[in-house]
Amino acid sequence: MSDKKTYVDRRLPTGDSLLKQLWQDPLGRAGFLGILFILLLALFAPIIARYDVAQINSKARLAAPSGTYWFGTDNFGRDIFSRIVYGAQVSLLVGVVSVSIAAGIGYLFGLAAGFFEGKVESTIMMLMDIIFAFPSILLALLIVAVLGTSIVNTMIAIGIVNIPVFARTVRASVKAVKGTDYIANARSVGLKNSVILFRHITPNSLAPFTVQATLALSSAILTEATMSFLGLGIQPPNPSWGSMLSEARTYMEMAPWMVVFPALFIIFTILSFNILGDALRDALDPKLKL
Amino acid sequence: MLIPILLGISIAIFLIMQLIPGDVVSGILGIEETPELRAMWEKKLGIDKPLVTQYFNWISGVVRGDFGESFRTGAKVFPEILWRFSISAELAILACIVAWIIAFPLGILSALKRNSFIDRIVRVAALLGVSVPGFAFATLLILFLALVFGYYPPIKYVSLMQNPLKNLEIMILPAIVLGSSMAGSVMRMTRSSMLEVLRQDFIKAVRAKGAPERITIMRHAFRNASIPIVTLVGMQIGILMGGTVVIEQIFSIPGLGQYLLTGIFQRDFPIVQGTVLFMATIYVIINLLVDILYTYIDPRITYS
Amino acid sequence: MKRILSLVLALLMALSLTATAQEPMVLKYGTDAEPIGFDPHTVPALASTRIMLQMYETLVDVDENMNVVPLLAETWEQPDDLTYIFHLRKGVKFHSGREMKAEDVKYSFERILNPDLGALGNSASYAGYIEKVEVLDEYSVKFTLKQINAPFLSALASSYLSIVDKEAVEAAGGNLLQSSGGTGPFVLGEWVPDNSVTVHRFEDYWQEGVKFERIEFYVITDPSARMSALRTGEVDLIVGDSAMLSLAEKAKNVEIYKVRSRNYTTLCLNLNKEELKDVRVRQAISLALNRQEIIDLAFNGEAEISGFAPASMGHWAVDVLEHPLYQQDVEKAKELMKEAGYENGFTLTCTVGLLDSIRNSGTVIQQQLAAIGINVDVQNKENAQYVDDWKTHNFDLMVCQNGAGTDPNRAVAFFFSTTGSANIAEYSNPRVDELCELAAGTTNVDQRREYYHEAINIILDECPNVTFASPYDYIYASTDLKGYAPTASNMVNFRFAYIEK
């Protein structure tokens, strides 16, 4: 008989059974609801926000939370609640776009490396190693320094930094599936490479990829917050939670609400993605299937 | 395999620095700049030469152990890197110790009592550790200690050699901040590896033989679970290299990350290039060591 | 009886001796940035200057009324317009112990003018007009200029023109980045990079009464950490800004020193930009601004409305409080915009740097200009990029903080004459150029004032810059610190300061 590995079905379970599984796990439920909450906040920001985000009001500076200003105001008299709500848009946008860039490019690299092996694989993986060897925050800072500070460039920077992680995950998955008898059969039937790649290998590589994507989202938001804190991320007066936190540093004692709310929302969002990622990992782990 | 990567990194960082707008001369002269002064400084620093020449001058120095001098202070880069590295390394090691003390016992406990109340608490605590940005934790910690206890960590840095106790007093707070976020991921990794292993057949076999629970766990499970943990720890030490930057800044610790950050902001090429190359080398070496450790822990893994 | 009395006296004396022989008096200063070396001729950074001012001195100094007063030079005369003769103080020692003589002055200036050094003093604003320096006798030096340069005397007070010890420079291999070669009250000690710098008292300093045995400068970049360090007594003095004011007021052990600086914050307009070429548009911008609001929000209220010749310049200053263009009049501004054909407004970018007050001013200006139809896109640049943009004139609007300097030539010609190296607005007015030349070419103070005032008024009307504030500088110190009197000329003079608990 062939020495090929036996094929283990690693394709993602169909949509509703996955959701059901997630829902049953209390942590999964929590993560899912948390992200839903932030998503809704971001989508309905124009309706929920009570004031203009950039509206300066010198008479209402540093006001404590009250009926008029639910989360208080900052040093420009801007309403913090409205800025937090719009900040959700910015944070999620940066997270989603940068992870999409990383995932998209990383996926293609990983696929190519795992499938074609040989020189292709070693070149790609060396490129990945070079990127990976740079400490991530510093690489992101360098990229933004070259391109200039803007929302788009921040997304590109965080995207590039996360490519290797996806490439490696996908490569490992592809290699695992590639050697199986299932794929050997597909080949012997004469299916073209591209068909094999996309119709058969890809679905089986998606599980760890999805988990990785969720965790990368939380890491992207964390990286953006750190970059803004160092002054090279989203620039004021744009309401990103990270830059709000950075601006609040000077006023920490006089107006602690300026620090507390952005910090809370950053932590909440990152936590939700992490919890969801964990739950997904538990749900998708074939070894846990009984 | 090592050399091409490092070479690639050296070229990459050299090019990136050239691409960043602004240069060291503008930073030095600022508002006092005139075309004559600029010409004088460019000649002095050797940056009026073609790029290829500059790169070769630098890289040929590097292979001889000479990383050049800082554009701004004229101090030799390599000795400075080494000294700063020892400080960052000390911080990293302390952080790891903090992390392991918290993470290993809790991770194992959590795996043993899977899905119990303790397990849930530990999992959430670990998640929190990973989800709270280090700079937020650090800033709040300093504020809290100053307001509530009137305590501020000693600001004048002394090395471990000069005054061990004072040095530890300076390093303990940043180590706690760094360690707690590390602890989160190590805890989770420990837990999942332990679960994985506990499930395996041979553990059941060992239990069936009647071996005492403790020995079972310690000797067999942990040993097998340690593979991914070693990977993770190796990765984390590498990550710590750059990740200490913000913490170093907040606690005024003269570490390698701070050196690099200042170098970037001031466009001090020798500092940035030298430090990045150094960090990458350390990272690559650590990965190598981790791979070697693998072969000891799990003889089933061989390398072609 | 006599014996008991003398015994008691001896005991008292012994006690008082031990009392004074206690711990050395140390000043701990919390600063915001790491210094980059201590060569007074080649290092401009403020973080370094603070420390270099402890170690080096100049021929003359400028007091808070902008009068030139003696320092290392006791007297001087000007036999003709191009010649200055200085008579040095006798008995001034360098840190090496050697006495400072006229040759050292000659050496210092020749070093500055050496094209290979890249010294900052080697430019038109400072020593650039020197033709030659000659030693007349042991304690007398003669400077001959290439042309009349009235600002020369006050420029000599700049730390870029410090007097250094030739032997120290040569012993250190040509630069003073990490060693001491000056005449100042303190000598460079230990430097722990990114952490602290220590300077020790120079026992042979020519002035008596320096009480601190050493000063320790610490780098604490985070402003709230710095304030915490002050309040818990870890440091005695910190660099601060107006944002911390309310915290400092509440703290019982903190004393607030407020100094009227010679800095001003301004909105630079790039006159190359089509819309900004029209003086009506520029005036509209000036009229649209509510300067008090900018001060309240970006400076925490701690600044004065000011033009580019701020009140701290004494009799050289031009008061703008009543100037028509400095009163907010949005209606008039809109009219001017309409007249110039820009009723529908346009978009401009505004470049700001990392300094809080600059960045925050940008935010407020953005909102204020929106009222007259100018849509401002604020771009935050970090330091090196900001300086680069400044130099290459790569901006539409730029918020800058400038120093008006020790001589009005600096405040006017440096920024607004056609050939001024800081004229980033690319402003050019022949009458202003003429006035600047006339003013630099005479040493008659009253005449100079007339010329400068006329030039300043022209510039105010034409608005190449729209200036709004001159901020106060704040230093926060422990209430135990005494004898410290910062002025705009020197905020780090600790010669006569001491700590008394």
Radius of gyration of chain B over alpha carbons?
24 Å
Q: List the secondary-structure elements of chain B in sequence, H or E.
A: HHHHHHHHHHHH
In round numbers, the mean pLDDT of chain B is: 81
Task: Give the amount of beta strand of chain B, in percent.
Answer: under 5%
In CATH terms, the superfamily of the largest domain in chain C is Dipeptide-binding Protein, Domain 3
Q: Please tally the β strands of chain B and state the result.
A: 0
> Could you estimate the helical fraction of the residues of chain B in percent?
over 70%
The CATH architecture of the largest domain in chain C would be Roll
Main sheet: strands, sense, barrel of chain B: none
* Structural class by SSE content of chain B: mainly alpha
Give the count of helical stretches of chain C: 15
* C-alpha Rg of chain C (nearest Å): 25 Å
Helix percent band of chain C: 25-40%
Q: Structural class of chain C, please?
A: alpha+beta
- Ranges of chain B where pLDDT stays below 50 over 5 or more residues in a row are none
Chain pair forming the biggest interface: B-C, 48 and 49 residues
**What is the averaged pLDDT score of chain C?**
88
Global geometry of chain C: globular
Q: N- to C-terminal separation of chain C? A: 37 Å
User: Main beta sheet of chain C, described?
Assistant: 12 strands, mixed
Number of helices of chain B: 12
Structure description:
With 290 residues, chain A is mainly α. Chain A has one domain: MetI-like (MetI-like fold), CATH 1.10.3720.10. Helices cover 71% and strands 0% of the residues of chain A. Chain A contains 11 helices and no strands. Chain A has helices at residues 15-24, 26-43, 45-48, 80-116, 118-133, 136-147, 151-178, 181-188, 193-230, 241-248, 257-284. The mean pLDDT of chain A is 82. Chain B is an all-alpha fold and 304 residues long. In chain B, 78% of the residues lie in helices and 0% in strands. The mean pLDDT of chain B is 81. Chain C has 501 residues and is an alpha+beta fold. Chain C has 3 domains: 26-32 and 174-260 and 473-499, Periplasmic binding protein-like II (D-Maltodextrin-Binding Protein, domain 2, 3-Layer(aba) Sandwich); 46-171, Dipeptide-binding Protein, domain 1, CATH 3.90.76.10; 263-472, Dipeptide-binding Protein, Domain 3 (Dipeptide-binding Protein, domain 3), CATH 3.10.105.10. Chain C has 15 helices and 20 strands. In chain C, strands 1, 8, 9, 10, 11, 12, 13, 14, 15, 16, 17 and 18 form a 12-stranded mixed beta sheet that branches. In chain C, helix 14 packs antiparallel against helix 15. The longest helix of chain C is centred in the first third of the chain and has 19 residues, at 2-20. Chain C starts with a helix and ends with a strand. The relative contact order of chain C is 0.14. At the B-C interface, helix 2, helix 3, helix 7, helix 10 and helix 11 of B face strand 10, helix 6 and helix 12 of C.
